[in-house]
Write a structure and sequence with these properties.
alpha+beta; Beta Polymerase, domain 2; 5 strands; 174 residues
């Protein structure tokens, strides 16, 4: 049986789940952590999303990321370099925390204020500040979800929308 990506209606518990993970990650990484953010669709109130919390943790450099792997593993985060490679995310160290066999949290360890960091925060801001863009994004996700059984392929299918939105936002702020 093939399972497909599921887009859930917004859940008021998502920010609370993020906050619990933020505290745990902060304790585990300690002084290497410069900042931590709730990103992705679960960070946008009212937006439907895969029920997976996306967390972005900023470190001084990707060289610091290696020292974080073991402390994060103790929190049940599995380092998944092949996924970041498959998506072409060379400035992202990707971790997955599962609950009952299903992904529950995606953790992106990246350089604080690097390109990946700035793009994720800009996209989140656009979605939070523009309900029409958020609705368009949710409609796209709901259209795409039944066509995919894995997250990386689904994410790749959304790339055009994300890049277009980022480009428009950059032009508006130029």
């Amino acid at each position: 049986m093939t399972t497909h990506i599921v887009i859930a209606s917004y859940d008021e518990d998502w920010p609370l789940r993020y906050e619990r993970e933020r505290q745990r990650i902060s304790r585990a990484i300690g002084s290497r952590l410069l900042a931590i953010e709730h990103i992705g669709s679960t960070a946008v109130q009212g937006l439907g999303a895969k029920p997976i919390i996306d967390v972005m943790a900023g470190v001084e450099s990707l060289a610091d990321a290696h020292a974080c792997i073991e402390p994060l593993r103790t929190l049940e985060y599995e380092f998944r370099p092949a996924i970041a490679d498959r998506l072409g995310l060379h400035d992202d160290r990707f971790f997955v925390k599962s609950t009952m066999g299903a992904p529950a949290v995606h953790l992106h360890l990246t350089e604080f204020c690097g390109t990946f960091w700035r793009d994720k925060l800009l996209f989140r801001s656009v979605l939070r500040d523009n309900p029409d863009v958020a609705q368009e994004y949710e409609a796209l996700k709901r259209d795409l979800a039944p066509r995919f059984s894995d997250g990386p392929s689904y994410s790749t299918a959304k790339t055009g929308f994300v890049l277009g939105t980022l480009e428009q936002a950059r032009r508006a702020h130029a």
